[in-house]
């Protein structure tokens, strides 16, 4: 016998935006909701990611956001996309936040159900977080 049990340890984020830059920004902002937002901006840091594909870019970028917020003990507040290249997948962002231990833990940014595509003029990103 087997059965499937409900599992509440995953969160699926869906993003739709007019440009890849805006879609990445929204995906990062969406991750802030899971990490736990700070209140004030008193620190900032940059993240730069080069990846072989756009799907890898999304996962790598979000994984770096999660890891750097934990390592630096920053509860994120805002993000600015400084540079994006979709042909040679690359992104550089600036994270602003509060120097405080993030209240929540994200175990992983996964490839399960991952979608990164341009459709009808908009960019669509789906990414599943293991929380």
Task: Describe this protein with a few key phrases.
three-stranded antiparallel sheet, single chain, 2 helices, alpha+beta
Structural features, described:
29% of the residues are buried. This protein has helices spanning 20-35, 54-72, and strands at residues 10-17, 43-50, 74-85, 90-99, 108-119, 122-130. By secondary structure, it is α+β, with helices and mostly antiparallel strands. It contains 2 helices and 6 strands. It has a single domain (10-130), classed as Archease, Possible Chaperone, Chain: A, domain 1 (3-Layer(bab) Sandwich).
Domain count: 1
Order of helices and strands: EHEHEEEE
Shape: globular
Name the CATH architecture: 3-Layer(bab) Sandwich
Q: How helical, in percent, are the residues? A: 25-40%
Total helical segments: 2
Beta-strand segment tally: 6
Mean pLDDT over the full residue set: 92
Please indicate the percent range of residues in DSSP E strands (runs of 2 or more).
over 45%
Could you tell me the radius of gyration in angstroms?
A: 15 Å
CATH top level is Alpha Beta
């Amino acid at each position: 016998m087997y059965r499937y049990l409900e599992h509440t340890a995953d969160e699926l984020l869906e993003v739709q935006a007019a440009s890849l830059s805006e879609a990445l920004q929204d995906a990062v902002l969406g991750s802030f909701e899971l990490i736990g937002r700070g209140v004030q901006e008193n620190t900032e840091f940059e993240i730069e990611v080069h990846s072989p594909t756009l799907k890898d870019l999304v996962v790598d970028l979000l994984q770096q956001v999660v890891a750097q917020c934990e390592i630096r003990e920053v509860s994120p507040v805002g993000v600015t996309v400084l540079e994006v290249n979709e042909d040679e997948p690359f992104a550089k962002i600036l994270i602003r936040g509060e120097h405080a231990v993030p209240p929540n833990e994200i175990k992983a940014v996964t490839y399960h159900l991952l979608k990164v595509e341009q459709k009808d003029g908009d960019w669509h990103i789906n990414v599943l977080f293991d929380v």
